[in-house]
Design a protein that fits this description.
Blueprint lengths: L1 E7 L3 H4 L6 H14 L5 E7 L9 H5 L16 H8 L4 E6 L5 H13 L2 E9 L1 H15 L5 E9 L3 H13 L3 E2 L1
Parallel strand pairs: 1-2, 1-4, 2-3, 4-5, 5-6
Helix pairs in contact: 2-4, 5-6, 6-7
Length: 176
């Protein structure tokens, strides 16, 4: 049985650049420690936009250019990238929006050959991309424990971080 870690959007723009917060900076060391733990597979997602971001529906609602593919802000945080590089089994997944249907597809394919015991999520932002992906994963795998490490996540604000944790807990995602 396999244990999976999903590191959500630990990118420069969410840590300490365009949309960064002090809470996001503070979780980097704990996320790196989590990445180093005994997981059979780590999937790291990257929020990925293009030059036309402000013309998209998301861009109209969040008019802050961020995570434009191949920009410095789109890159993974250097400490997180280093922790990932020290692992044998890592997959990087670019996603164009909050949640990733491809993430679910990858997990389903993996589960066919290596049954999944548990799935843990960490990363940014708790109240947008973490909650969206956690709910997608829980929907796809209702009988597999899906967990979110609260101390390895940060939200847009501390209040919305807590609200997202409560929402996930109500949907039978274990908050650890």
């Amino acid at each position: 049985m396999s244990k999976i870690l999903i590191s959500v959007d630990m990118q420069n723009d969410f840590v300490d650049a365009a949309l960064g917060t002090k809470e996001a900076v503070a979780i980097v060391p704990t996320v790196c420690e989590e990445i180093k733990k005994d997981y059979d597979l780590v999937i790291a997602t990257r929020d990925t936009h293009h030059e036309d971001y402000l013309e998209t529906n998301e861009g109209k609602h969040l008019p802050v250019i961020h995570c434009v593919q191949d920009s410095e802000g789109w890159m993974l945080n250097k400490e997180v990238e280093k922790a990932l590089s020290e692992r044998a089994s890592v997959r990087i997944l670019d996603k164009p929006t909050f949640g990733s249907e491809e993430l679910v597809r990858i997990l389903k394919e993996y589960d066919e050959t290596e049954p999944i015991e548990s799935i843990t999520l960490v990363g940014l932002c708790t109240d947008i991309c973490v909650v969206t992906n956690a709910l997608l994963v829980k929907t796809a795998f209702p009988e597999i424990p899906v967990m979110v490490k609260a101390d390895c996540c940060a939200g847009v604000t501390p209040e919305t971080h807590e609200a997202a944790l409560k929402t996930m807990q109500m949907c039978q995602i274990e908050i650890i």
